[in-house]
Specification:
mainly alpha
């Protein structure tokens, strides 16, 4: 008769025992208050424009600032009737300048940024330093030289005089270079080259999907910059049918000195000019992703 012995399991090392750590979030009333003040500071002018656009020309200066009225639709109709719908021609021009200019700028920025991040060539560091220097130069300073250059080739007072200077964005190239270096792994590029892929295919089908969130940011920055640009089209254009919304509303504002009714048209036009920007931000925000390599899965 054999006696069975019970073996006691060995004790689990203390260092293998799972530990659960709870992370407590700290809330700062001061930081929350500062953010709320910043939000109010940014949104208060928008609220004023929205309310002022509902008032008639007589109510604009005689009623309480934040007291809304019921004349928004009539103000839009009057603005639309101005010189046979010239305002909507300005809106279309602005969409053309900002849309086409933004897309061309993103294309150039993506190719330049990818090349600076992933290729080695003579003068690479000097080229990047020149681009960084271009970020520090305000666009207003370049408006006059650009006008003189385009005047030499007869492109002033045309759509090209506003589109061509908008294609190159030093800040966009800088952002694209930083994002390409962070989001496009060198191992993926080398693997594609080993499989026989050409450089253009690697850029368009592998690198570009990985860079989409950064390129969307570049497009938004450039689109808003062109949409709000005043000095360049003001210098380049003489025909009011080529004006963007900024220059067109400035002309209406100048007429308000002799025709006070034009102030209502300017405010209504300013309200309508904000709506495309809001819609664009709401539409494109879904492309902002936390994972830098999320595009590799789609590729």
């Amino acid at each position: 008769m054999t006696a069975s012995t019970l073996t006691r399991p060995a004790a689990r090392p203390a260092d293998l025992t799972p530990t659960v750590r709870f992370r407590t979030e700290r809330r700062s009333p001061l930081a929350t208050g500062v953010l709320l003040l910043g939000a109010v500071y940014c949104l208060l002018p928008v609220a004023w424009v929205l309310i002022a656009a509902t008032k008639s020309s007589g109510e604009l200066f005689s009623t309480f600032t934040f007291a809304p009225s019921t004349h928004l639709w009539s103000n839009i109709q009057e603005l639309s009737a101005y010189r046979g719908g010239l305002f909507w021609r300005w809106m279309a021009n602005t969409a053309l300048y900002a849309g086409v200019g933004g897309l061309l700028s993103v294309t150039v920025s993506a190719m330049a940024g990818y090349g600076l991040a992933k290729f080695q060539f003579v003068g690479k560091k000097a080229t990047f330093n020149i681009i960084l220097a271009g970020v520090l130069v305000p666009g207003v300073i370049l408006a006059i030289p650009q006008y003189l250059l385009l005047a030499e080739v007869g492109l002033t007072n045309t759509y090209w005089s506003v589109l061509l200077p908008s294609i190159i964005s030093p800040y966009g190239i800088y952002l694209a270079r930083i994002y390409a270096a962070a989001s496009v792994p060198d191992d993926v590029i080398e693997a594609a080259r080993t499989d026989g892929a050409k450089e253009w295919r690697i850029f368009t089908q592998i690198a570009t999907p990985m860079m989409i969130p950064g390129l969307v940011t570049v497009f938004l920055f450039q689109f808003v910059a062109i949409w709000n640009n005043f000095m360049l089209p003001y210098i380049m254009l003489g025909n009011d049918r080529l004006f963007p919304i900024t220059v067109g509303l400035s002309g209406l504002l100048n007429q308000g000195a002799t025709q006070p009714a034009m102030y209502t048209a300017v405010i209504t036009g300013a309200l309508l000019s904000i709506l495309p920007l809001v819609a664009l931000f709401l539409t494109l925000q879904r492309y902002w992703q936390v994972d830098l390599a999320a595009g590799a899965v789609k590729a």
